TrEMBL record:
Keyword set, alphabetical order: Heme, Hydrogen peroxide, Iron, Metal-binding, Oxidoreductase, Peroxidase
An example Gene Ontology molecular-function term: catalase activity
Record protein name field: Catalase
The family this protein is said to belong to: Belongs to the catalase family. HPII subfamily.
The protein's required cofactors: heme
Reaction(s) catalysed (UniProt annotation): 2 H2O2 = O2 + 2 H2O
CDD domains assigned: catalase_clade_2 (cd08155), GATase1_catalase (cd03132)
Positions of the Catalase core domain: 30-418
Biased composition (Basic and acidic residues): 1-27
Enzyme kind, highest EC tier: oxidoreductase
Organismal lineage: Bacteria, Bacillati, Bacillota, Bacilli, Bacillales
One Pfam family of this chain: Catalase-rel
């Protein structure tokens, strides 16, 4: 008998998780067996100064659990942050896929999304130069579907057999376990120079994309070419994109390094705080679709994971949105134990012959067996599908399901051959019938051989500011390499991309400038430049530098207008407590100059005070100069206006003087621009 169709909602997944939650408030302390404990301060001893007795079962249970609390961290993507939410479909994809959650506009599917850095350990900083993970688990009525994405659309390698090599190369060097969470060392750049398929990914890694301002302002890409299959069995090639509704924005490198020291949890805290404040991160899901008849119609191989499909050639179609609206209750049980796998698909979504994807289909599930202690990791609450699951799998570490009956095999007669396979009409998954034939061979298609054309396309697409940042990034990273031979190899390699890029880097790192000619590709893709992204002041964070005797009513009115535009602000002064305005109004101080830093804000609003606090002016001067150096908006009213004049930045781009017009509106517009690259730096 066919089971009743399971209607999946965001609430149904939350309700499923609720049964595993425990509220310990107002409860008596017990052992794991439920026995009430009378003392949790002292172990059982033979006399006050005697030895501890082994019969102290409470001590043994408590210590044993503590000794086994850690599980192996992920080899890559160890440093993560996550949130619950939902995906809402805008328009039906029925013509392309039979996946049920993509059929009816307005359908909401619960999700769990985890963001991560790739290289660093769990204890590393959020703001290192690195690729970021963007993995989403859809709890659909047909089973879990995992879209395991990164914030860059290409990868270092073309074949999964080399995945251990790139990870070994970029991880800390094995002889001294240095450096942590960084590619700025010999083995990584030696790998790059000797595996030139990495060129395109390295261009992205040296760009501003590698230091995102926030997970909320970061794109996600499925990287691989997947396949949509509709009810008629017709296939289409597809790539997936997540597009943040706040735009794509980044830190500057100097700022990113300082944030790593000031607040290594910067991106994690930003995500958590935004959700707690009701500023729910939103992303739109876009798809690029290619008809199978056009598989070979492009000047690149669409199955090559080191290539993009330029949006000018294959338009991006927006089909739905992702909203993250609830933080995890327990980091370990949810964020740390969630297990993603590109092979978790539903009917209507299938694979292609991308050799990197093919390897990942093995690697992910193999990894979870070690990390999560055996084959039953799918029973951990965060990994459990909302729809029922029935099969003949039994036993294993951490088995939770209690199966009734004696039969655990197929075929059988004792239980009427249940559970039995579903037909395609009943929702059974059927693999796309692609004709595959060929000799067994270790080889790579000649269509994967071009490593530099799209690297040059990326370079051509950058603004002058972004190009300079790429040069600076190469100079920093390769400048850390001790081997001059490796430095020279890198310079020679990237001369194949652009001779001006390679020459500038060579001059900065003491290498010989190359003499070869770079790529002659002139094509560009404006969609790749962050200069062309959405610009909004919403959820931006402003530091308000304020002291005793400020102009109360005017300042409060400005702060109210900033809030109305969705801007967040924190007050910063010399001391904690209240600051009082000249008219008696008061504001609570959120931070002192000691407890915060200009690098963790998007803009600075300097108000000042009565002018009788030299310590405030000294600290405020450093604070504003640092923000100005990082091209951030600077606003000033009241006593702060004189500060602009004294420090000779009045009139510079992104500097808003409250005496020159409606301050709040101008400042909000300046904040929305994110950075003001064309300003003249102070002495």
């Amino acid at each position: 008998m066919q089971e009743k169709e399971n209607k999946v909602t965001e609430k149904s997944k939350q309700e499923q998780l609720e049964q595993y939650k425990v509220d310990d408030s107002n409860k008596k302390l017990t052992t794991n067996q439920g026995l009430k404990v009378s003392n949790d301060e002292l172990s059982l001893k033979a006399g006050e100064r005697g030895p501890t007795l082994m019969e102290d079962f409470h001590f043994r249970e408590k210590m044993t659990h503590f000794d086994h609390e850690r599980i192996p961290e992920r080899v890559v993507h160890a440093r993560g942050s996550a949130a619950h939410g939902y995906f809402e479909l805008y328009e039906s994809m029925k013509d392309y896929t039979k996946a049920k959650f993509l059929q009816t506009p307005g359908t909401k599917t619960p999700v769990f999304t985890r963001f991560s850095t790739v290289v660093g350990s769990r204890g590393s900083a959020d703001t290192v130069r690195d690729v970021r993970g963007f993995a989403t688990k859809f709890y659909t009525e047909e089973g879990n579907y995992d879209l395991v994405a990164n914030n860059m659309p290409v990868f270092f390698i073309q074949d999964a057999v080399k995945f251990p090599d790139i990870v070994h190369a970029i991880k800390p060097e094995p002889h001294n376990e240095i450096p942590q969470a960084s590619g700025a060392h010999d083995t990584f750049w030696d790998f790059v120079a000797n595996n030139q398929e990495s060129a395109h990914q390295v261009m992205w890694l040296m760009s501003d994309r590698a230091v995102p301002r926030s997970y909320r302002m970061m794109q996600g890409f499925g990287i691989h070419t997947f396949r949509f299959v509709n009810e008629k069995g017709k296939g289409h090639f597809v790539k997936f994109h997540w597009v943040p509704k706040l735009g794509v924005h980044s830190l500057v490198w100097d700022e990113a390094q300082k944030i790593a020291g000031k607040n290594p949890d910067y991106n994690r805290q930003d995500l958590f705080d935004a959700i707690e404040q009701g500023n729910y991160p939103e992303y739109e899901l876009g798809v690029q679709i290619i008809d199978e008849k056009d598989e070979f119609a492009f000047d690149f191989d669409i199955l090559d994971p080191t290539k993009i499909w330029p949006e000018e050639d294959v338009p991006l179609q927006i089909i739905g949105k992702l909203v993250l609206n609830r933080n995890p209750d327990y980091f370990f049980a949810e964020t740390e134990q969630v297990a993603f796998h590109p092979g978790n698909v539903v009917p209507g979504i299938d694979f292609t012959n991308d050799p990197l994807l093919q390897g990942r289909l093995f690697s992910y599930i193999d990894t979870q067996l070690l990390r999560l202690g055996g084959p039953n990791f799918h029973e951990i609450p965060i990994n459990r599908p909302v729809c029922p699951f029935h099969n003949n799998q039994r036993d294993g570490f951490h088995r939770q399901t209690i199966n009734k009956g004696k039969v655990s095999y197929h075929n059988n007669s004792l239980s009427g051959n249940h559970p039995k396979p579903a037909t395609e009409a009943e929702g059974g998954y059927t693999h796309y019938e692609e004709k595959v034939e060929g000799r067994k061979i270790r080889a790579r298609s000649a269509s994967f051989a071009d490593h530099f054309s799209q690297s040059k396309l990326f370079w051509n697409s950058m603004s002058p500011t972004e190009k300079q940042h790429i040069i600076d990034a190469f100079s920093f990273e390769v400048g850390k390499v001790k081997s001059m031979n490796v430095r020279q190899q890198v310079v020679e390699m990237f001369a194949n991309v652009d001779i001006s890029l390679a020459t500038a880097v060579a001059n900065n790192i003491g290498a010989t400038p190359p003499t070869k000619t770079g790529s002659d590709v002139t094509k560009s893709s404006p969609a790749l430049s962050q200069e062309n992204t959405i610009k909004t002041a919403a959820t931006r964070k402003v530091a308000v530098l304020i002291d005793q005797g400020y102009s109360g009513t005017a300042v409060k009115n400005n702060l109210h207008e900033l809030q109305a535009a969705g801007v967040q602000y924190e007050t910063v002064s010399s001391r904690q407590g209240m600051v009082k305005g000249e008219d008696g109004t008061e504001l609570m101080v959120d931070h002192t100059f000691t407890t915060t830093s200009p690098v963790v804000y998007d803009a600075v609003y300097i108000v000042g005070g009565s002018g009788e606090n030299p310590a405030f002016h000294k600290d405020a001067t450093y604070f504003v100069k640092e923000a100005f150096k990082h091209y951030k908006p600077i606003g000033a009213t009241e006593q702060g206006i004189q500060w602009l004049e004294d420090n000779k930045i009045n009139g510079e781009p992104g500097v808003v003087n409250g005496a020159s017009g409606p301050f709040a509106n101008q400042f909000i517009q300046a904040i929305a621009m994110h950075r003001h690259w064309n300003r003249k730096m102070m002495d």
